[in-house]
């Protein structure tokens, strides 16, 4: 499970500047929620080879002072609950404010590492001014210039050093791990409970970074796997937009820890941007994917085409990687929930499948023979040999004379042929062309 570093602080102190610096060229995931001035972002970063997730908690556009305070304190509380460590950013230009003191009061009580960071310390002049912040009653702070990056090294050295060491013995080592993810209220807990008959056979708590995630063993109807449970946590929080944001983050961690991801969608709401983010995360992590459209019982006026149209609309939206099983369930009435389990296990097997080199060449070379890559400037690509790499998710290397002439459409063609010949439904696959 990855560690999460949340950056909190008043607006304009420089949170997003630091965030962008930590992310460098990596991709950020954006959460656009109504009510916030700026989107919240999270993304992956690493320091000295230690990976972590970093969140920029964004900012609210509220003029009323009371509401303003309230919003900030919600952000801070969520960061305390969900992050491994909290970077509390202050602005030397503005000095210590009352809101800063209130934020610090909350953080002080948190049982998490908190790093006090004085930002906009661009020169020795500000270095001196920063001493004002000792008024908080702290022993140590870090001075930073997010704009130039100076000071980030010392901060990150300590942040990374303090990450909890998760020496954890997985009692379910080797078993398939399946996670149900999706927006709040789609029915994740209902499905989990239905599958486990409200009775967790074995429950373990992973000594995770934040809230523990629950793993339950499912052993029925010829299947044995571990359900990694992200549902049912933080139900008490009423801040729905925050809840939603953090639920995506929690999904990210769960996805990283699984083999197959069941993406659950509410049939009455359809496929939305948030679902697409989750799909993208699962795909980039090369996990098996099953899409489950839940609450199908609520869809009235079902005609013969309703399912087909719904499915087609989703396939259209998910784009290029559309070879993904889509099922329609009702977790409430238990309709087709066992089908969802069967499908997830099929996808697990598809992802694990290793094609023998001899078989792969026997099948693929004639296809290349019949439909070679288009010649470029009179040059012909000759694909001579292929292998599947011994990776957890399927990756194939095709050796040829002129790999630089194999363009995206032909790579896609190759992927589609692999899917057609060997069956990789629900599994992202990688195709590489290399010089022989
Ligand atoms: P946020 O609202 O806390 O995310 O703050 P931003 O990252 O948007 O920064 C607010 C303003 O402060 C921007 O104009 C930044 O360019 C500026 N800023 C951020 N970090 C520094 C810094 O280290 N030094 C100086 N001088 N300005 C900074
Ligand atoms: P979670 O937040 O994704 O874990 O969602 P829950 O499992 O807590 O479900 C949210 C609400 O939707 C609850 O009131 C459930 O009873 C209801 N619900 C879940 N699945 C279904 C379903 O298939 N059909 C209907 N009609 N309601 C459902």
Automatic annotation (TrEMBL):
Protein name, per record: GTPase Der
Source organism of the structure: Soonwooa buanensis
InterPro entries named in the record: G_ENGA, GTP-bd, GTPase_Der, KH_dom-like, KH_dom-like_a/b, P-loop_NTPase, Small_GTP-bd
Subunit structure comment from the entry: Associates with the 50S ribosomal subunit.
A Pfam family per the record: MMR_HSR1
Binding site for GTP 2: 182-189, 229-233, 294-297
Function: GTPase that plays an essential role in the late steps of ribosome biogenesis.
Domain EngA-type G: 3-167, 176-352
Keywords assigned: GTP-binding, Nucleotide-binding, Repeat, Ribosome biogenesis
CDD domains: EngA1, EngA2
Annotated residues for binding of GTP 1: 9-16, 56-60, 119-122
GO biological process, one term: ribosome biogenesis
Protein family membership: Belongs to the TRAFAC class TrmE-Era-EngA-EngB-Septin-like GTPase superfamily. EngA (Der) GTPase family.
One Gene Ontology MF term: ribosome binding
């Amino acid at each position: 499970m990855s560690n999460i570093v949340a950056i909190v602080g008043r607006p304009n102190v420089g949170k997003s500047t630091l965030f962008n610096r930590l992310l460098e060229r990596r991709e950020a995931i954006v959460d656009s929620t109504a009510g916030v001035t700026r989107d919240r972002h999270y993304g992956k970063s690493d320091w000295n080879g230690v990976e972590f997730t970093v969140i920029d908690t964004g900012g609210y556009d509220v003029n009323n002072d009371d509401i303003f305070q309230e919003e900030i304190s919600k952000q801070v509380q969520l960061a305390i609950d969900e992050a491994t460590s909290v970077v509390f950013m202050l602005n030397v230009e503005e000095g210590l404010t009352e809101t800063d003191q209130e934020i610090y009061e909350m953080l002080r009580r948190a049982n998490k590492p908190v790093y006090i960071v004085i930002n906009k310390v661009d020169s020795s002049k500000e270095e001196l001014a920063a001493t004002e912040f000792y008024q908080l009653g702290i022993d140590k702070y870090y001075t930073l210039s997010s704009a130039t990056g100076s000071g980030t090294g010392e901060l990150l050295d300590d942040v990374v050093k303090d990450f909890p060491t998760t020496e954890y013995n997985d009692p379910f080592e080797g078993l398939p791990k399946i996670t149900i993810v999706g927006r709040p209220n789609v029915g994740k807990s209902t499905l989990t409970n239905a599958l486990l008959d409200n009775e967790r056979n074995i429950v373990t708590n992973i000594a995770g970074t934040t809230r523990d995630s629950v793993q339950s063993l499912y052993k029925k109807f010829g299947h044995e796997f571990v359900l990694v449970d992200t549902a049912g946590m933080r139900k008490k929080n009423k801040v729905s937009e925050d809840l939603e944001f953090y639920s995506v983050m929690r999904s990210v961690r769960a996805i990283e820890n699984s083999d197959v991801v069941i993406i659950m969608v509410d049939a009455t709401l359809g496929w939305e941007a948030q679902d697409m983010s989750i799909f993208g995360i699962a795909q980039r992590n090369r996990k098996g994917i099953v899409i489950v459209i839940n609450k199908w019982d609520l869809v009235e006026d079902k005609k013969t085409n309703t399912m087909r149209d719904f499915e087609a609309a989703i396939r259209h939206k998910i784009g290029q990687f559309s070879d993904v099983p889509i099922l329609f369930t009702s977790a409430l009435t238990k309709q087709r929930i066992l089908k969802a389990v069967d499908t997830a296990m099929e996808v697990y097997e598809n992802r694990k499948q290793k094609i023998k080199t001899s078989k792969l060449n026997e099948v693929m070379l004639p296809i290349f023979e019949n439909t070679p890559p288009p010649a470029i400037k009179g040059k012909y690509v000759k694909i001579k040999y292929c292998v599947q790499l011994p990776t957890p998710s399927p990756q194939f290397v095709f050796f040829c004379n002129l790999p630089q002439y194999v363009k995206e459409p032909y790579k896609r063609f190759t992927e589609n042929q692999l899917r057609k010949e060997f069956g990789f439904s629900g599994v992202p696959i990688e195709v590489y062309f290399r010089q022989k």
